[in-house]
Amino acid sequence: MQPRTFSSRPARLHAAFSLVEMLAAVAIIGIIAFLAIPNLVKMRGDSERNIAIARAESINMGMATFIQVRGRTQAVADWTAATTDQLKYVKIAPYISFSETNLTDFMPNGYSVTFRTIDPLAKVTLKQGTTVINY
Length: 135
Prior knowledge:
The chain is 55% helix and 8% strand. It has helices at 19-70, 72-81, 85-92, 103-106, and strands at residues 111-114, 125-128, 131-133. The termini are far apart. It is mainly α. A hairpin with a 2-residue loop joins strand 2 and strand 3. Helix 1 crosses helix 2 (72-81). The protein is rod-shaped and about 115 Å long.
């Protein structure tokens, strides 16, 4: 008969986190989120502003192309006949890449453009609410 030997290994322990460790992990994640979320919101606002500026520049380029294609005299006559910003946008939309059907769909939410003269050619006025954005 063999003598009975005992293993030097302890009984199987259950691997788990304690409540204090879990609370510390949640607190660290909360602090990181608290610091990161305002930056993410600011980055989103900045990107929408940059999109609005880029689209206003696209409209300006579309106006210049419209003059080149139609000729200055005909372009001025067509521009004067269009009485609203939407009708003016419809005139230049074929000359803008990836343009939407409506001007309000083309610009990001909260931004608007107001068309100015085409002779002499003047850039559109870009606004965020009532604030004019110089670009």
